[in-house]
Design brief:
The structure is a single chain. The protein is mainly α and 131 residues long. A two-stranded antiparallel ribbon has the order 1-2. Helix 2 packs across helix 3. It is rod-shaped and about 110 Å long. It binds zinc ion. The site of zinc ion has 8 residues, from helix 4.
Length: 131
């Protein structure tokens, strides 16, 4: 015969009606099971909050594993966060360091070559080439 849980539907009903009238120990004695079984049943039935990690039902964190819109990383992260934490931080840092996107134009000094100054200009460029 398969081992049956002592918490039958009748016991559940009884717990619902009597859990405030008895201690866990008394209820366990009444049902004929151990205290832990009673506590688990109470937590499961949401009749009582029993402090202690082993009695808690695993809280489901609101998260998803949708691929990051930037790098495609599908590590789970809070729901409605489309970017992974790494990309999120990277973007935030980028915003901090570069408040505006600007095109940096490097203006090189121009040598205007006129007929008059051609020789001089040539000399200058030769000098530059020679270092
Ligand atoms: Zn990413």
């Amino acid at each position: 015969m398969a081992k049956k849980s002592p918490i039958t539907s009748e016991v559940e009903q009884w717990l619902k009606l009597n859990h405030k009238l008895h201690t866990h120990k008394e209820m366990a004695a009444n049902i004929g099971c151990c205290i832990e079984t009673v506590r688990r049943a109470l937590v499961r039935l949401e009749l009582e909050v029993v402090h202690g990690a082993k009695y808690q039902r695993r809280a489901v964190p609101k998260s998803w594993s949708r691929p990051c819109i930037i790098c495609g990383c599908s590590k789970s992260r809070p729901r409605m966060q489309f970017k992974c934490n790494a990309c999120h931080d990277r973007e935030r840092d980028a915003d901090k360091h570069m408040p505006s996107k600007r095109n940096v134009t490097i203006t090189l000094p121009r040598i205007d070559v006129c007929l008059d100054k051609k020789e001089k200009a040539t000399a200058t460029s030769e000098n530059l080439q020679l270092g």
